[in-house]
Design a protein that fits this description.
The chain is mostly helical. It is 84% helix and 0% strand. It is built from 16 helices and no strands.
């Protein structure tokens, strides 16, 4: 099986995982109305799911180290398909929540193990760009899949949307099953492996960067539809367009990072990406109420999000190649912890009628990420 086919299969698997995580953001008002809950309660579907993903990612990495990667990743997508189809028929909010938590407990496996899998397939020289390519799936989940979710939810309802997501996951399962080579297994992880990670200042700082920038993003991102409505009087259609543009910028930013990292290095590429997001949070905050300025800030945020995470994964692999299955899983774990923190804070601000504060809190989190990144300068 060619390396390119494997990379495409893993990238499309990340599209499915990304939209499974983010889908409620694209149909928040429809979910809230259909399940008879508030916007904040519907948003907590993302926060609760992120908590499960946070703890599930390292635990799953430890438990599945010796499982054949093709079997593991294909089975993960098959279970995601079942969870999405089940959500389409869920009778109430509690059922949707329980199905989501079970589904995302399984989804915690995919993204970190996809990164470690492609690292096994390609040469060391190609590793950073290959990991970045695989992570393009998350960019596409925002650029393409999330606007589609918003459109489907607005026109056909949230149940039909979950049905489409289930069919998409089933297709990705088939592609991973035929597109990945068999026999790939990671190195076994012992207690000493986790101890070594905990003692590495470079790894802990990199994980802190992930926690802070994702918290910054999710103070705003899950509430994009109601924030645009509250601050700029824009409808769901406008928010759907900006979802698409945000994801397109993420895609372009990640492509640019893939090309730039070989020349400028992962640290410099990360610094530019995080700097763009910090500037975007400031533009969103200062331009609150003006749709054009809020949109410009959102696009700047979009430019950096996928590239930053790709570089984070590449730097973690470089810092401890033998422990990459664990460190990339921990990066994913801290990413989801940041999502949970940001979603909770953003929902709290929105619930207390302080939507203007969302942008400033996001900028503060992003500044903390930049400070943490600066402390990793000169490290692998």
């Amino acid at each position: 099986m060619s390396t390119r086919v494997s990379a495409v299969a893993l990238m499309l698997g990340n599209v499915v995982v990304g939209i499974a995580v983010l889908a409620p953001a694209g149909m928040l008002p429809d979910l809230a109305a259909g399940l008879a809950v508030s916007i904040r309660e519907a948003g907590l579907l993302i926060a609760y799911g992120a908590v499960i993903l946070c703890f599930g990612s390292p635990l799953m990495a430890w438990a599945t180290t010796r499982v054949d990667r093709r079997t593991l990743l294909a089975a993960t997508l098959a279970l995601l398909a079942i969870g999405q189809f089940g959500s389409a028929f869920a009778p109430n909010y509690l059922a949707v929540l329980v199905l989501r938590l079970l589904m995302l407990a399984v989804a915690a496996i995919y993204t970190p193990q996809a990164a470690s899998t492609i690292a096994m397939i390609v040469t060391e020289r190609e590793r950073a760009s290959a990991i970045s390519f695989v992570f393009l799936g998350w960019s596409l989940s925002v650029a393409v899949a999330l606007p589609v979710v918003t459109f489907l939810s607005a026109h056909f309802g949230w149940r039909a949307t979950y049905g489409v997501l289930g069919a998409t996951a089933a297709a990705a399962f088939a592609l991973n099953l035929v597109g990945l080579p068999g026999g790939l297994r990671g190195a076994p992880l012992s207690l000493a492996s986790w101890t070594a990670i905990a003692r590495s200042r470079a790894i802990i700082l990199l994980l802190t960067v992930t926690l802070c920038w994702t918290a910054a993003m999710f103070v705003i991102f899950p509430y994009l539809v109601p924030l645009f409505a509250r601050l700029a009087g824009a409808g769901a259609g406008t928010a759907g367009v900006f979802f698409a543009l945000y994801g397109a910028m993420g895609f372009l930013g990640n492509v640019a990072a893939t090309q730039a990292v070989g020349r400028f290095g992962a640290f410099n590429t990360s610094a530019v990406s995080l700097g763009a997001m910090f500037a975007g949070a400031l533009v969103w905050s200062l331009g609150a109420g003006a749709l054009a300025l809020m949109g410009a800030g959102l696009l700047m945020l979009g430019l950096g999000f996928a590239a930053t995470n790709s570089m984070q994964q590449a730097r973690l692999v470089a810092a401890a190649p033998a422990l990459s299955g664990a460190t990339v899983a921990l990066n994913t774990s801290w990413l989801y912890a940041g999502q949970a923190l940001g979603t909770w804070v953003g929902g709290l601000l929105f619930d207390h009628d302080a939507p203007l504060a969302n942008g400033y809190v996001a900028a503060a989190f992003m500044l903390a990420a930049l400070v943490s990144l600066a402390a990793t300068r000169g490290k692998p």
